[in-house]
Design brief:
By secondary structure, the protein is of the alpha/beta class. Strand 1, helix 1 and strand 2 form a beta-alpha-beta unit. Helices cover about 35% and strands about 15% of the residues. Bound molecules: alpha-D-ribofuranose (RIB) and calcium ion. Calcium ion binds next to loops.
Length: about 325
């Protein structure tokens, strides 16, 4: 079976940073065509710069990074600097990126990559607001048959939101984009808060990263420590910090880490208290066919074992 071509669309962001490193160290499992960036946790300037810096920090300057959309399609968007820092990586100093700038826009890169692939040849992993992916589907609907699966971090099925009581950040930040993607008819997997909240960054797990010998692992430990501290401060200790985004890449490597159900999902784009809510038809009362595999549980130790195994491969 030929390997999937994977596009990671992100808004680094501290948990995005770990997802990027996991993807870069897992290219035996898929062909990473490129990384596209979008405004989300912080501004596009920072998300784009952070992605470029992380790719070079990991010793993968050949991996292409593209600049995408600077704002949401319709709404004013959202930022999460209170948990990612103003620079998006918790103030952890990374070497400035030096690789040449890609002239192509992220949306056009997504379109071109899909058009050059065989049917069902591409998997897209949006782990920030889905603006780039939505616009690619609007600009080039012909790419749909080329996309095998969209595995996204976003939404919450049966619990509270983390940005409003109803909504998770990535969906809240651009619900119109999420609605376009979720209603596209493309098979998709939702890694929502129901499951990602189980990937807790414990002190022991932080210590493991600190004890690895590489500069990259130390940077990861510093980033996660900063992230954990900011989440604890923001929530008054109610939450410890979890690794949301890397769950998508872990799913590509070992889907058995996760379990979920197929449901009908739609996004609330109304100007109400439910703005950005992923409404999941848990009891199938709408009669609508299921359109999303919603992940609900994970083996968090198997997830971290995979993460440690892959990140420890970076010897820099
Ligand atoms: O709600 C968690 C999501 O919002 C993650 O993708 C995190 O990086 C932020 O973008
Ligand atoms: Ca993210």
């Amino acid at each position: 079976m030929t390997k999937q071509t994977v596009i990671l669309d992100c808004d680094p962001g501290l948990d995005d940073a770990v997802a990027i490193l996991l993807a870069l160290t897992s290219q035996e499992n898929f062909d990473l065509a490129g990384i596209t960036t979008v405004a989300g946790n912080v501004s596009l300037y920072h998300t784009y710069r952070n992605a470029r810096a992380l790719v070079e920090l990991a010793g993968c300057p050949e991996v292409r990074v593209f600049e995408g959309c600077a704002r949401a399609i319709m709404s004013e968007g959202a930022r999460a600097e209170e948990v990612h820092g103003a620079d998006g990586i918790g103030g952890v100093p990374l070497p400035a990126p030096t690789a040449p700038i890609e002239e192509q826009h992220a949306v056009d890169f997504i379109i071109e990559t899909c058009r050059n692939a065989p049917d069902k040849g591409v998997t897209i992993c949006p782990i920030g607001p889905m603006t780039n992916v939505a616009l690619a589907l609007i600009k080039a609907p012909d790419i749909k048959p080329k996309i095998n699966e969209i595995v996204f971090m976003g939404g919450v099925a049966f619990g509270p939101g983390n940005t409003s009581p109803a909504a998770e950040f990535n969906i809240y930040a651009d619900p119109h984009a999420a609605e376009i993607v979720i209603k596209s008819g493309i098979p998709q997997v939702m890694m929502g808060l129901d499951v990602t909240q189980q990937a807790i960054i414990t002190e022991d797990r932080l210590r493991y990263f600190r004890e690895l010998p590489s500069a990259v692992s130390h940077a990861v430990a510093e980033m996660l420590s900063a992230y954990r501290k900011m989440v604890i401060e923001k929530t008054g200790g109610a939450r410890q910090g979890v690794l949301h985004d890397p769950c998508t890449i872990a799913y590509l490597i070992d889907p058995t880490i996760f379990e979920g159900e197929d449901y009908f999902v739609e996004v609330d784009c109304s100007s109400s208290a439910n703005f950005g809510r992923t409404t999941v038809d848990g009891l199938a009362v709408t009669g609508q066919p299921a359109n999303v595999k919603v992940m609900l549980n994970m083996n968090d130790q198997a997830f971290y074992d995979l993460l440690f195994d892959r990140i420890s491969r970076i010897k820099k």
